[in-house]
Design brief:
- With 245 residues, this protein is α/β, with parallel strands linked by helices.
- It has a single domain (57-241), classed as Uracil-DNA glycosylase-like domain (Uracil-DNA Glycosylase, subunit E).
- It contains nine helices and six strands.
- Helix 2 runs parallel beside helix 6.
- The chain is globular, with a radius of gyration of 17 Å.
- The chain binds uracil (URA).
- Uracil is lined by residues 96-100, 103, 109-110, 114, 137, 219.
Length: 245
């Protein structure tokens, strides 16, 4: 059912975006699963048109577009764009913030120290990189500060990149999404940047119609290993959602 445009506008004014439309109403039908959606509400007609075109891409075209993307300044410093890696029919989708130096140089997400911890977390869940899991990031190119260090992506960089992740979600249609860290969580849930991660844990959220669990970013857990137990609880909550699905 088409959402009442007035209601959509009000939700957006209240900062309760993104607003989702069912696939097939305004985007192409190729690829993806059968049930729902995922087209982020966009700010301009051009952005909406681009987001709609991304929603009709197959995997090959999507990855080609990501690798050749010039929609924000991050493309200028990249060695490789990092579309994502894994099982395209995965039940688990893990979403991080953005590539770091090693990911930029290798073109694969989570290959540095945080990635080693993520691999251990997967193993604890009886998963492995590429086996029933897909790993992606909010932004596909490395955000790097003037000091040469990794930094979080800006809101504009996130907005420019989100259509790609929306399409990845729509193609994979995982049974659960795990948002790793605050950037992933607030970007996927359309929340203010100052939302605390603590306030998002221990709850079942949704991205479009798919359940989403928030946990700590592995890089944070490397600095605060005492919080690994909490993260394990989050992953167990995510796993519990798969039972019976
Ligand atoms: N941190 C992330 O959020 N993503 C990566 O791919 C690597 C580190």
């Amino acid at each position: 059912m088409q959402m009442d445009p007035d209601k959509v506008r009000k939700l957006q004014q209240m900062g309760l975006g993104p607003v989702w439309q069912r696939r097939g109403q305004s985007s192409g039908e190729s690829g993806g699963g059968s049930a729902a959606i995922a087209l982020p509400a966009s700010e301009s007609p051009e952005e909406a048109a681009y987001a709609a075109s991304v929603m009709s891409m197959d995997w090959a075209m999507l990855e080609e577009n990501i690798r050749g993307c010039g929609r924000c300044g991050l493309c200028q410093g990249r060695t490789h764009a990092v579309p994502g890696v894994g099982d395209r029919k995965a039940r688990w989708l893990f979403v991080g913030e953005g590539p770091g130096r090693q990911e930029d140089s290798q073109g694969e997400p989570f290959v540095g120290p945080a990635g080693k911890l993520l691999d251990n977390m997967l193993r604890a869940l009886a998963l492995a990189r590429g086996a029933n899991t897909y790993i992606a990031n909010i932004v596909k190119c490395r955000p790097v500060g003037a000091d040469g260090r990794d930094r979080p992506p800006t809101a504009d960089e996130v907005a420019a990149c989100m259509p790609y992740l929306a399409r990845q979600v729509d193609l994979i249609r995982p049974d659960v999404i795990v948002a790793l860290g605050k950037t992933a969580a607030v970007s996927l849930l359309g929340l203010p940047a100052d939302t605390s991660l603590a306030s998002l844990r221990d709850k079942i959220h949704h991205y479009a119609d798919l359940p989403l669990i928030v946990t700590y970013h592995p890089a944070y857990l490397l600095r605060q290993p005492a919080d690994k137990a909490k993260s394990w609880r989050d992953l167990c909550l995510a796993k519990s959602l798969l039972n019976g699905r």
